[in-house]
Amino acid sequence: MRCTLSQFALVVVGLCRLIAPVCAADLVPKDKLDPIANSVIDSGWVEGLAIGLINEHGTQTAGYGKVSESNPLPPNGQNVFEIGSITKVFTGLVLAQMVEEHAVALADPVQKLLGDSITMPKWKDREITLVDLTTHSSGLPSIPTNFKPKDVGDPYVDYTLEQMAAYLGKHRLLREPGTRYDYSNLAVGLLGNALARKNGTSYEEMVVDRICTPLGMNDTRITLDDSLRSRWVQGHDFDGNPTGPWNIPTLAGAGALRSTVDDMLKFLAANMGLTKTPLDKAIADSHVVRFKLPGAGGVALGWHVQGDGVVWHNGGTGGFHSFAAFDPAKRAGVVVLASTSASAVDALGHRLLKLLITGNAEPLKLPKPMVLAEEALMPLAGTYQIKGEPKVVVTRTGDHLSAELPGEPKMKLYADGPRTFYTRAAADLLVTFEDDVDGRPQSLVIRQAGTVTRAARVDEKTKDATAPE
């Protein structure tokens, strides 16, 4: 809850003892940790950052940047962030618990749990099962086509259960469930609904009762009380603009939880087997790969598992980005909570895990923008379109460019050269203006993850697309 092309880039005593502040020395020397963490702060990609490291010797937390515009202190282990799609791991663990209790089976059709409240689509006689939902192999899209938020700053708040039911009742699957991986917020949000219905509670009550209370995670919630609200970190979009929180009532199981680094270290400690908990069997079951991906690795119950055995998940909302990972063999884990919706946090998290395991890792080399003269930017402003996609409007405001899709917030384009720009929405996305005619580019070329997509200029040659200053 990620940057796609269409978005242009869219309690036990032992546990409590383990998560207490590190008693002796830090797990990682500060002179090695700080340069890596500060790489996303100093480059302007992230406003505030809280980090947690854990292994069999203890834990270590650190904060960088600022809590908010009015609080210049760095976040700490008790500050509250949105964790976005890491919520899916909690949904998967609830599923594992209910399977252990024989309340459900992984192969159960989700229709069995929904009763008459929702009519699920089928592929011939093949129904969508619970395991299809949690492994993103259901055939359902990431977002339903009737998802049309009134407020892009809080896009999920007005999407209702009735709208989801109406969409699923009319949706036609394009392939058999269980045959292809396609990341789906809708699928895991639906799973959260189905499990909560079976549990006889709300999604939040179910997660608190089944996971948070046994693990002593008292600061992991959807609903913020006064204590959590007082420790809230101000979120920012990928361009550093302050944002409001996201509220996700219907698809809560896909991304609604808020948490702290201290709580997430408790969760990692349980997942890494560093503490004995009532959830041990369900946790172990939740790590088993249920859908294999091409090459190596696959998807477990919520978690993704790399070919080298590293178990991980990330999360993103309009103002936050999160990352959690652990290496079961090395018994080392990391959690990163950032107060900016910046995909570079994933690379930071992997770098920190390497540092914890090997003792060495290089800081990220994130680009810093060039400053271009306004007259150099003016010819680039205009309207571009990929065939079959919405139009992309590129405008100039002062000394920078922005790109905008219908219904999406503006996204700054940062100069990496006279005709090459990057965005902070996706660290690997480059935009190049090409095919000049009379000094005006006729194409906008998007390069990301090895793919190249060309958008043709469609505004009239004489049109002034420059935004007012």
Q: Could you walk me through the main structural features you see in this protein, from its secondary elements to its overall organization?
A:
The protein is an alpha+beta fold and 469 residues long. The chain folds into two domains: 23-358, Beta-lactamase (3-Layer(aba) Sandwich); 374-457, Lipocalin, CATH 2.40.128. Helix content is 27%, strand content 22%. The protein has 14 helices and 22 strands. The protein has an eight-stranded antiparallel β-sheet, sandwiched between helices. The chain is globular, with a radius of gyration of 23 Å. The two termini are 33 Å apart. 47% of the residues are buried.
- Mean pLDDT comes to 91
Give the neighbour order of strands across the main sheet: 2-1-14-13-12-11-10-9
Shape: globular
Helix amount = 25-40%
In the predicted model, the low-confidence regions spanning at least 5 consecutive residues are 2-24, 462-469
Distance between the termini: 33 Å
The name of the CATH superfamily of the largest domain reads DD-peptidase/beta-lactamase superfamily
State the total count of DSSP E strands: 22
Which architecture of the largest domain per CATH? Answer: 3-Layer(aba) Sandwich
Number of domains: 2
Task: Give the C-level CATH assignment of the largest domain.
Answer: Alpha Beta
Give a quick account of the main beta sheet: strands, pairing sense, barrel closure: 8 strands, antiparallel
Provide the structure class: alpha+beta
Computed over alpha carbons, the radius of gyration is 23 Å
Helices, by number, come to: 14
Strand content: 15-25%
